[in-house]
Recover the amino acids of this structure.
């Protein structure tokens, strides 16, 4: 018999070296003669608990009881009973004697007495936690007594351990035996190892060894008495030393007092069954017990009950002990979300709980679940993740964002829901710094190019603001190709006043990225037109932006003139206003439902209006005071505009410059294939502004009034036009030159080239009108200064006549 039990316990192992676990430091307390050690797995380092029981004689009664406990713990399974992992019996020499040790490996647990001291709970929170723990132990005892017809024999504080999730579990099965009440002929002890139980924990009939009375009693009689002893030790805070102490009820809660007295009834048959205690006791009816119980049966609840519960959970979590929330509720909630039993409102609760975790614990316990949720097809889950991305976005690593998170989020850019498109757009403010340059150039900028012509005006506005904020994360080549086109060609020509204002603000906020040529030839001409915009806020921003960029040009001129620095003319000069502009754009993008505070410089007058357009949930209802939102589709027909030569790009903005149209369907998402928006007809004033923006300003009449236009108005030859087109930065928005029927002037090419080089406006000057005058003589040149004057007079007279 001994060899059989030894084989059951030890298996094939013959020593501690066969135990696949490391044994660490012991705890200060354990049940009976056992020693409770901390331990770890040799395979993966996961924590475990190791219980050891030693004896010098293989026939020692303690070892025999220990083998009984191992067998019972291995075969009895219940959520509130300690989980068995491994066991082994080892022999070692201790001097001249042989020492036998039984090892039991279980899930990692801590003695209840030590965990209570560690938590340090008081008053109501302590009572709530005790109620939850007693509820769990009552379920375990009821399972043994009523379902398995087993008697534990020694329920007390020492026989309770606590898991890492603060669950209470019953162990110490050395005394555990079957209840043989159906065998009245039996005369021996029903509990073979009852001598291991302290006399203070024994009921009267067990103290008298009245086994006949015990067999006539219900199966729960002995363990109900032990459960009463457990209640006394918990609330009194002292270990029971004699039975008479149980009569002191000063520390017992009033809601539990009557049940406590029935558990300790002197008549075994009248003792309260633990199953009835669970059903009827009002002590177990508190917020903690109800919350955990609901989570345990969450899969059985309908969607209405789940939504109602999860909407209340954030407030309930504030009233529950913080340690229990983080170690018990949070893992349960994360598991429910991961496996689909929890609904979207649970995200709010789990993120609020997660905010109470240290950063290291958050990254280990919660972040993996959040990353998995991005792959969910549930639209509500996706919305919840995007709405709260600022709470966990900083914890995401760049590699995880680029490889696992962004591919799932990017699907929201083209979603049919405008609300989801806007949330996806706003999330990029947090995620863009973690994206690789490849992802930003080949994917993100394509989506932003489409969103800048979105049907929702607030999305168009937010796209411009986002581009201004993420410009710092783009490389120089991408910034040069994208920013000016995005802000001038699209944002400044938008029919929505806040979108035009956002374009001006974005240009000012990114002014350090433009060289002086771009400012003078592409940015200022587009902003100046908006100084007569119908919207007062746009006009105000335009005037302030003109002042800022003129100041930059002036600073550049002064530095070049004084030769303080070399090559400054081609470098943008940032101003102190940039930081505040960028900060304003960020706050207007991230603050939802709150208007941005007044910011200096450009944002002073319009921060309230832009903020409302950015954060209004009902995007279709965004309006601007005093401005007509509609405009004719022809007023922003970008597809008619020619484009200059620039490096080939696939981000959407490069295509408007180089005019390349690819036959592949995947590449047709840039500027060249965007259809103009069909919106109500704009006001005459706004239509005039947009018409001016679409064509370059002609200075021929102005030149004719100020000085004789000798050769600057002469039509260029084909080769000369081709050479200047390469350097024409207005190529992407300039109107093509019309064909003329007038005959060219007979002027020497060298003189013409010299004059054109001094005229920076030659590239956008309108062609001379058709005239019927005869060609000038071929001999006119530098030797005859009066000839150009005559030719100019004739042209002026003819032009005025037409």
């Amino acid at each position: 018999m001994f060899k059989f039990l030894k084989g059951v316990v030890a298996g094939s192992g013959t020593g501690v070296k066969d135990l696949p676990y490391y044994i660490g430091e012991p705890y200060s307390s354990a049940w009976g003669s056992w020693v409770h050690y901390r331990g770890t797995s040799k395979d993966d380092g996961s924590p475990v608990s190791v219980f050891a029981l030693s004896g010098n004689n293989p026939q020692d009664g303690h070892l025999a009881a220990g083998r009984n406990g191992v067998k019972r713990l291995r075969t009895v399974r219940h959520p509130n009973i300690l989980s068995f992992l491994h066991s082994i019996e080892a022999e070692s020499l201790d001097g001249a004697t042989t020492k036998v040790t039984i090892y039991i490996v279980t899930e990692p647990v801590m003695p209840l007495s030590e965990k209570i001291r560690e938590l340090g709970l008081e008053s109501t929170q302590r009572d709530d936690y005790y109620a939850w723990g007693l509820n769990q132990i009552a379920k375990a005892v009821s399972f043994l007594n009523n379902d398995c017809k087993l008697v534990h024999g020694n329920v007390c504080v020492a026989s309770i351990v606590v898991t890492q999730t603060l669950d209470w579990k019953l162990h110490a099965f050395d005394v555990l035996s079957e209840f043989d009440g159906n065998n009245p002929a039996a005369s021996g002890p029903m509990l073979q190892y009852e001598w291991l139980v302290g006399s203070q924990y024994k009921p009267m009939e067990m103290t008298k060894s009245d086994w006949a009375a015990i067999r006539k009693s219900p199966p729960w009689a002995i363990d109900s008495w032990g459960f009463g002893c457990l209640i006394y030790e918990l609330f009194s805070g002292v270990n029971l030393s004699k039975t008479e102490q149980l009569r002191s009820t000063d520390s017992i809660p009033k809601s539990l007092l009557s049940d406590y007295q029935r558990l300790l009834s002197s008549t075994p048959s009248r003792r309260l069954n633990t199953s009835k205690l669970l059903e009827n006791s009002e002590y177990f009816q508190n917020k903690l017990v109800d919350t955990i119980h609901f989570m345990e049966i969450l899969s059985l609840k309908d969607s209405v009950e789940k939504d109602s519960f999860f909407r209340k959970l954030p407030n309930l979590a504030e009233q529950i002990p913080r340690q229990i929330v983080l170690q018990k509720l949070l893992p349960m909630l994360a598991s429910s979300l991961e496996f689909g039993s929890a609904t979207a409102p649970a995200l709010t609760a789990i993120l609020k709980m997660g905010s109470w975790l240290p950063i290291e614990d958050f990254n280990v316990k919660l972040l993996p679940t959040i990353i998995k949720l991005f792959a969910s097809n549930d639209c509500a889950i996706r919305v919840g993740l995007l709405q709260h991305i600022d709470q966990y976005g900083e914890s995401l690593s760049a590699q995880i964002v680029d490889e696992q998170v962004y591919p799932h989020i990017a699907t929201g850019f083209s979603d049919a829901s405008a609300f989801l498109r806007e949330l996806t757009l706003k999330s990029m403010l947090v995620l863009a710094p973690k994206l690789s340059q490849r992802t930003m150039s080949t994917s993100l900028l394509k989506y932003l190019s489409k969103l800048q012509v979105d049907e929702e005006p607030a999305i168009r506005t937010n796209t411009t603001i986002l581009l201004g904020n993420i410009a710092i994360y783009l490389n120089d080549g991408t910034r040069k190709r994208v920013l000016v086109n995005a802000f001038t060609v699209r944002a400044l020509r938008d029919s929505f006043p806040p979108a035009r204002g956002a374009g001006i603000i974005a240009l000012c906020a990114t002014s350090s990225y433009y060289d002086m040529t771009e400012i003078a030839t592409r940015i200022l001409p587009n902003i100046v037109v908006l100084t007569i915009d119908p919207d007062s806020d746009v006009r105000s921003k335009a005037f302030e932006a003109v002042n800022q960029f003129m100041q930059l040009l002036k600073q550049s001129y002064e530095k070049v003139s004084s030769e303080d620095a070399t090559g400054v003319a081609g470098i943008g000069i940032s101003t102190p206003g940039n930081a505040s502009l960028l900060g304003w754009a960020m706050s207007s993008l991230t603050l939802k439902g709150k208007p941005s505070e007044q910011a200096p410089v450009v944002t002073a007058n319009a921060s309230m209006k832009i903020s409302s357009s950015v954060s209004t949930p009902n995007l279709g209802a965004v309006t601007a005071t005093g401005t007509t939102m509609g405009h004719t589709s022809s007023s922003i027909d970008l597809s008619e505009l020619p484009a200059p030569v620039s490096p080939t790009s696939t981000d959407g903005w490069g295509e408007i410059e180089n005019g390349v149209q690819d036959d592949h369907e995947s590449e047709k998402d840039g500027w060249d294939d965007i259809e103009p928006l069909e919106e109500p007809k704009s006001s005459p004033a706004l239509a005039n502004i947009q018409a001016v923006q679409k064509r370059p300003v002609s200075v021929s009449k102005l030149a004719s009034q100020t000085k004789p236009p000798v050769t600057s108005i002469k039509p260029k030859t084909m080769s000369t036009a081709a050479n200047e087109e390469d350097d024409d930065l207005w190529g992407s928005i300039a109107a093509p030159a019309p064909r003329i029927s007038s005959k060219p002037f007979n002027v020497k090419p060298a003189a013409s080239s010299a004059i054109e080089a001094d005229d920076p406006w030659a590239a956008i000057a309108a062609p001379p009108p058709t005239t019927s005058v005869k060609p000038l003589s071929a001999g006119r040149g530098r030797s005859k200064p009066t000839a150009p004057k005559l030719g100019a007079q004739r042209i002026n007279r003819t032009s005025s006549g037409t």
In short: The chain is about 50% helix and 5% strand. The longest helix spans residues 536-562. The radius of gyration is 42 Å. The beta strands are 21-26, 35-41, 47-55, 84-94, 97-106, 109-111, 150-151, 160-163, 168-170, 177-178.
